[in-house]
Design goal:
The chain is an alpha/beta fold. It has one domain: Pyruvate-ferredoxin Oxidoreductase, domain 3 (3-Layer(aba) Sandwich). Helix content is 41%, strand content 17%. It has six helices and five strands; from the N terminus they run αβββαββαααα. Strands 3-4-5 form a three-stranded parallel beta sheet, covered by helices on one side. Strands 1-2 form a two-stranded antiparallel ribbon. α2 links the parallel β3 and β4. α3 packs across α4 and α4 runs parallel beside α6. It is globular, with a radius of gyration of 15 Å. The model has no long low-confidence stretch (mean pLDDT 91).
């Protein structure tokens, strides 16, 4: 949810309308959670779940075994996935972007909290949010050294992805 809110905030800082919202099922605590982000150059009036996303971010690779994370992902879409392993069952016409966000987070933050790392990868892969807008959002959300570390994690992933493109 935090990643979705920060992506929406960065989109807003880029002069785009945005909204972020979670989807919780009736599952027990610890079950997979979905969060959605919409952005557009026009006001967003739609308030439903996103059934045909352009992009997905998968923070936990184990979800690929248990959940069809690719359901509805549009042809030409991009999946940013926290892994170095091969990704099976990806639909044809979808770009898979693999990044070891856990390693980056451990190296930079000292904790396996991958959301800001994956947001940097998302920004580089899609161009939907700028790195500067992402940094501004992280500075607004976090304070002092924590903001600096999260920005460094996002920048590291951003630069890795840009280097691969």
């Amino acid at each position: 949810m935090t990643a979705a809110e920060l992506i929406a905030m960065a989109a807003f800082k880029s002069n785009v309308y945005s909204q972020a919202f979670p989807a919780f099922g009736v599952e027990r605590r610890g079950a997979p959670v979905q969060a959605f982000v919409r952005f557009d150059d026009r006001k967003i009036r739609l308030r439903s779940q996103i059934y045909e996303p352009d992009y997905i971010i998968v923070q936990d690779i184990t979800l690929l075994k248990d959940v069809n994370v690719f359901a509805g992902l549009k042809e030409g879409g991009i999946a940013v996935i926290n892994t170095e392993k091969d990704v099976e069952n990806a639909p044809a016409g979808v770009k898979i972007l693999k990044i070891n966000a856990t390693k980056i987070a451990l190296d930079v933050l000292g904790l396996p909290i991958e959301n800001t790392t994956l947001m940097g990868a998302f920004a580089a892969a899609t161009g939907e949010i700028s790195l500067d807008a992402l940094k501004a959002s992280l500075n607004e959300r976090f304070a002092g050294p924590l903001a600096e570390k999260n920005i460094r994690a996002a920048e590291t992933a951003y630069n890795i992805v840009k280097g691969e493109m």
